[in-house]
Design brief:
Phosphoenolpyruvate Carboxykinase, domain 3, binds oxalic acid, 580 residues, 3 domains, nine-stranded mixed sheet, binds manganese (II) ion, Phosphoenolpyruvate Carboxykinase, domain 1, alpha/beta, Phosphoenolpyruvate Carboxykinase, domain 2
Length: 580
């Protein structure tokens, strides 16, 4: 027995009896273990070494071509009562789901090694952190979990101390899309995933634990588990304020988390400190503020679009100690993707000689995995067990029209409304059609582990209990002009919008009241130093006719979750529409 925690030992035994692995390996997280696993994967071809001169300790993994994204249609929340999961989730009765999964897992690890990964989501010493154990037959998952979580011996020690942990069971199975399920059992604190090796389906600490299961735990314990990045922004006076921002997958959270302020800001002394890029756990503090921790320890970022222009900090952290999944490779074996800028692809993401006729060289959802402390703007506050105090929460979507560059909610209730009404165009991060506008409340559509109506109620409860709640904002970097071009320059220039947000928090900027929210005064967003002044009138304009159509849809959307939808949100929709 490798652990003194009987419950854990018994569970591992019972999984081994069902899955029949050739060997069981308890992960310690040591450098030797990592080297051993890496060498094994280089032998089997699961990993390929990239150019050791330009990219030391960097590896490329090519996944099965049918296994390249999260599979929302095969992801289930299995609660006893279907109504608890809500219309926002696929639901299956726990008994039915267990029977189905037991059959898939029967004997599935024969001839393979079963890895047991104890992990901690959040700083090892933080009272806000939560524990889990993932059992998997994929060494690639172990290597990724090592970068994405605090895993191994220290996590096991805390699990043994506390006795409670989320049980995650994963097998890549046959990688058959017909035999693929990602099941969540929130009431049992359990996750079972079969048939996929892709990040969000297989690295169970991330979306499955830190969002779907954690949102459920957070609801009963009085906190929030959110799909948000966390960033600290230091002004020239040396004061740092922390902002948490929710955007749907592949809408720029990673870029925003590590943005480099544009030149006039840099020389004035503005600095950005990265705490997290994807997940944020928010806890009410005794002082009535909200405190955030990033439960993750690394980034699993989208590679395409990452360039010197869009995210120089990301590029700087990707030249050593990173795992790349489904990117292309240059003739001298460097990782390559569209918009990278330098180099040319020789092999595409499937390892074929690159031919533009086959589509993009890198898969649109190709990824990098890298430890957070490799990031040049990394903030040591990411290790603060008490978290960082949040001054502003931002909701963002990808909308070609309608949604303004920025607006502020009147109060927490209105902010919750803005989050609940969020909509965005779909991206390649999930299997399915790209570019379709869908409602994605709080960017949690694929990740909320329970009924959205109850979730909004929980948001109202948490905020209602705060003496100093963060201000809530909505942004849209993605407005397009008649020719289809982006109106706002985005990326580092988003600092200009953040400056207004922060000045609203410190009481240094005014705002204009409109029926949809508080807007910056004309010229409140600094545009000096941009090569041309963007069409701020369009970016900050409110078209009453278009908004009234939007409210039709928002009302229908809120209705869909009735009777769980809080009445105040329904009333507020009506009030705002009437004000238009
Ligand atoms: C992610 C996602 O991987 O949201 O972060 O898909
Ligand atoms: Mn995400």
């Amino acid at each position: 027995m490798i652990t003194k925690l009987t419950e854990l030992a018994e569970w591992v035994d019972s999984v081994a009896r069902r899955t029949q692995p050739a060997e069981i390996h308890w992960c310690t997280g040591s450098a030797e273990e990592n080297a051993m696993l890496t060498n094994g994967m280089l032998e089997t071809g699961e990993l390929m070494e990239l150019n050791p001169v330009t990219h030391p300790e960097c590896y490329l993994h090519r996944s099965d071509p049918d296994d390249v994204a999260r599979v929302e249609h095969l992801t289930y929340v299995c609660t006893v009562d279907a109504d608890e999961a809500g219309p926002n989730n696929n639901w299956m009765a726990p008994d039915t789901a267990h029977a189905l999964m037991d059959e898939l897992f029967d004997g599935c690890m024969q001839g393979r090694t079963m890895y047991v990964i104890p992990y901690c989501m959040g700083p090892i010493e933080s009272p806000f952190s939560r524990l889990g154990v993932e059992i998997t037959d994929s060494a690639y998952v172990v290597a990724n979990m090592r970068k994405m979580t605090r895993m191994g011996s220290p996590a096991l020690q805390r699990i043994e101390r506390e006795g409670s942990f989320v049980r995650g069971l994963h097998s890549t199975g046959e990688l058959d899309p017909e035999r693929r399920y990602i099941m969540h059992f929130p009431q049992e604190l359990a996750i079972q995933s079969y048939g996929s090796g892709y990040g969000g389906n297989a690295l169970l600490g991330k979306k499955c634990h830190a969002l779907r299961i954690a949102s459920h735990q957070a609801r009963t314990e009085g906190w929030l588990a959110e799909h948000m990045m966390i960033v600290g922004i230091e002004n020239p006076a040396g004061q740092t304020r922390y902002v948490a921002a929710a955007f749907p997958s592949a809408c720029g959270k990673t870029n925003l988390a590590m943005l480099i302020p544009p030149e006039p800001y840099r020389s004035a002394g503005w600095k950005v400190h990265t705490v997290g890029d994807d997940i944020c756990w928010l806890h009410p503090g005794e002082d009535g503020r909200l405190y955030a921790i990033n439960p993750e320890a690394g980034f699993f970022g989208v590679a395409p679009g990452t360039s010197k222009k869009t995210n120089p900090n990301a590029l700087a952290m990707l030249d050593r100690d990173a795992i790349f999944t489904n990117v292309a490779a240059t003739a001298d074996n460097q990782p390559w993707w569209e918009e990278l800028g330098d180099g040319r692809p020789a092999l595409d993401w499937q390892g074929r000689p690159y031919d533009p006729k086959n589509g993009p060289a890198a898969h649109p959802n190709s990824r990098f995995t890298v430890s957070i402390d490799r990031c040049p703007s990394y903030s040591p506050e990411a290790e603060n067990p008490s978290g960082v105090p949040i001054d502003a929460i931002i909701f963002g979507g990808r909308r070609a029209s309608l949604a303004p560059l920025v607006m502020e909610a009147r109060d927490w209730t209105h902010g919750t409304f803005l989050g609940a009404a969020m909509a965005s165009e779909t991206t390649a991060a999930a299997t399915g059609k790209v570019g379709v506008v869908r409602r994605d409340p709080m960017a949690m559509k694929p990740f909320c582990g329970y009924h959205f109506g109850d979730y909004w109620g929980h948001w109202l409860d948490v905020g209602g209990g705060l003496a100093q709640p963060p201000k809530i904002f909505q942004v849209n970097w993605f407005r397009r002009d008649a020719e289809g071009g982006f109106i706002w320059p985005g990326f580092g220039e988003n600092m200009r919008v953040l400056e207004w947000v922060l000045k609203r928090c410190s009481g240094e900027a005014g705002a204009v009241e409109t029926p949809v929210g508080l807007m910056p005064e004309p010229d409140a967003i600094e545009t000096g130093g941009l090569s041309e002044r963007p069409d701020m009138e369009t970016l900050l304009g409110i078209n009453a006719r278009e908004w009234s159509k939007e409210f039709d849809q928002i009302e229908k959307h809120l209705e869909k979750f009735a009777p769980h939808t809080p009445q105040v949100l329904i009333d507020l929709a009506r009030e705002l529409r009437n004000a238009l």
